[in-house]
Amino acid sequence: MSIVKLFFLLFVFLFVGACKSPTPHSYYKISPVEGAECLRYLERADITADEFMEVNSFANTGNYLCRVLLASWYERGVSVPIDYDKAREVYQAAAEANPAAYLALGRMAKLGRGQEVDYVLARQLYKRASDAGSLQATTELGKLMEGGKGGAVDPKAALDLYISKSKKYGDEAWIEMRRLRSEGITLELAQEAKYNQLWLQGLKDAIGSRIYKDKLWRLSVGVTSPATAKIRLVSRIGRSMPEVSVEESSGDPSIDEQILASMSLLRMADEFIYPEGEVFQVIVAPVVISRGEKIPRE
Known about the structure:
Blueprint (H helix, E strand, L loop, with lengths): L1 E4 L1 H4 L13 H5 L20 H12 L3 H13 L7 H14 L4 H10 L7 H13 L3 H13 L7 H11 L6 H11 L6 H25 L13 E10 L6 E6 L4 H11 L16 E10 L9
Parallel strand pairs: 1-4
Antiparallel strand pairs: 2-3, 2-4
Helix pairs in contact: 3-4, 4-5, 5-6, 6-7, 7-8, 8-9, 9-10
Pfam family, one: Sel1
């Protein structure tokens, strides 16, 4: 039996707030301030000549987001005729400041936009963007490796890439890794350690999600101290739903009952990787409902 105690959760309150959608800043990997002048144009296709010149002016000052946006307009023919050479030139200028922009150059090489299709070059460009933190570039590179485009067919190398670049349980690289594992490709022992680390972090997030979905934050209204309990999760090979019990009471049976009912609905889309010869694991994790939190809007 493997007993895993989530020590990294022990002193961490699971704060619950309003859910936020990813912002353009996260997509383009820039600060919330940089590129603010061009944000209002991101989702628009009806760009006037004056607006085009405004973005072009900001791009010429070295503004990363404005450069990427301008290049995409040249590539797609927004407000100006399609000009792949100019698009590549502006993407390249952006990539010199932030290599994540090599994602766009890799896509152009893969699709043959204004050039011959070049999978070898696409791999090289995707790798540069992947190494800079672009998970989209990681998955694009991995799929070329899986399909043998620009090099040998090598799904194992693609799996290695996905696990090495995955940052969070369920992210783009994790999803591709999950697919290859379902096809029978296995992780190495050292890779399993990272997998389990991300899995445990995913479990922490799942606990926080259940607190929000089941409105357990209501339990903190009007109290003077956090409602705290520890739950015991017993996971078994082949089962997506763990057996849940209260390991340590919050001191209030009604709160324990609500926590238990909520945590009994926990699901993980992937299994923990068990050490050889073991078929189940026990995880003891705290559930902390912090006092004084703002009640999310419904």
